[in-house]
Amino acid sequence: MKDFLRINDFSLEELRGILALAREQKPAARAHTLAHSHPNRQLACVFAKPSLRTRVSFEIAIRQLGGNSLFITDKEIGMGTRESVKDVAKVLSRFVDGIMIRWFDQGEVDELAEHATVPVINGLTDLLHPCQVMADIMTVEEHLGSIDDKNVVMVGDGNNLANSWLNAASVFPFNFTLTCPAGYEPDEAILAAAEAAGASFRITNDPAEGVDGAHVIYSDAFYSMGQEEEAVKRRQDFAPFRLTNDLLAGADKDHIVLHCLPAHRGEEITDEVIDGPHSVVYDEAENRMHAQRAIIATFMK
Ligand code: CP
Ligand code: NVA
User: What does pTM read for this prediction?
Assistant: First the structure.
């Protein structure tokens, strides 16, 4: 496979290989002694949405390997408006050695990958956020050991993160629960694929029932980038799904709390939880860089 677009395009062995490389390189990267395996390789980083973690971690990761990055926004390239997705793919492939893209429509990212001759890495679409979930699995395993048989419970929206967790549960043997309000379930095709793959997952509209026995609690914004107009309604619909110490009383006593960030403190997660003893959100943010460096190293040969 040329591209890193969705987690369930890969076998457990391939994904475990990426995570092992991420773990192996982390100490050297932090000590600034990482060998330059990718000298002068150029990574185009294309953004149609804002970013802190994805932009900075990809830019730093490619530099740590000896390469360079270019920051390009949708306003410059106008992919699909100023010129076709196909032409952008063909031209960018003549200039750079890899493309990381944060976009709205997953279909356009798939089309870009189809026509690009260099690897395309999915840096978030409305449908998926696979790099985030790779960093999340790395973080879970640093704190709790193997993710196998763990209960991973996402509290909130059936969004791009929930979809990517479902894709991950189709490959890794953990149990995934999404607890969300009725009407905010994940993508139907992804649910069907998870079912067909024999993934262990369930969806419940009762947050207390959902978090019962959880080893990993996962949170994300109630409204994603591009859904700002729905914020008022979503704040009401999701109110019972706010992470508080009371809600988390039923989780495993050694549970960890993850949030992909950015967080709306006091909305989907309270200060007491995000700043509390179970929270590992900053380890998780740092691991974006380590997991993505391993993805770059694996795909940008
Ligand atoms: N978690 C994440 O992708 O953060 P950014 O939107 O800041 O990149
Ligand atoms: N679901 C969020 C994730 C942000 C990293 C969004 O798409 O905005």
Answer: 0.98
